[in-house]
Amino acid sequence: MKSRAPAKVILFGEHAVVYGEPAISMAINLYSNVEIEYSHETTIDGFKPDFKYHSYILKALELAGIERDVKIRTESMIESASGLGSSASISVATISSALALKNSWKRDEIAKLAFLTEYHVQGRASPVDTSTITAGGCVIVSSDYNENTLWKISMDDKTWFVSRVDISDINFIVVFSGIKGSTAEQVRKVYNFVSRNSFGMEIIKKIGEISRNSLRELENGNVEKIGELMNENNKLLSILGVGHEKTNEIMESIS
User: Fold this and answer.
1) Catalytic position from the list 69, 129, 144, 169
2) Is 108 an active-site residue?
């Protein structure tokens, strides 16, 4: 069984969504492919599995209930640690192929198991990346149910609803700064900031407010206002400690 899963970009709400605030994200046309077939021994791209290098794939197989040996082949167009959801794309494609191999393929189940894969490997996560990649198009992940809700995902005391968002035909520029970073490390950095600073949750809530305000602008195609909100959102992420001077330079060069 072979599955293809796209990359994603988060437009608004990155990191704040872990704490229950809304995030808006969309899939883009870069892809990962994962092919799985039963075999006499388990290999990944011709090598014996090593959790250090194959943690997402191995956890995905476990959660999908694959108990027999399998041969896995992967390929990806997505630059790792670039913020485009490379691990989430591999997780979704692996879960998709594994469930198809068992004749139990369901889109909402793929989204839930792929989220659990990321959660267990990273230690803390939101379903934004995995649900966006599973759903395709543009979605909002929030604590609110609406008529466009595709599925819900719960973990501990949090519940996220993944809903479809119809946005105008807008051209977004996606720029890779060349600075790589671990998602798990960035999530821990925000957690430490919020835990140690009394105003940390205020920043999180402000990011959530920006996400809500951006919905109408995205639907109406108000490019100038969207840019202003993205600049404001980036400043708040910098306060949380997950910004970068290179990102600021890029944004200033195109504003």
Assistant:
1) 129
2) no
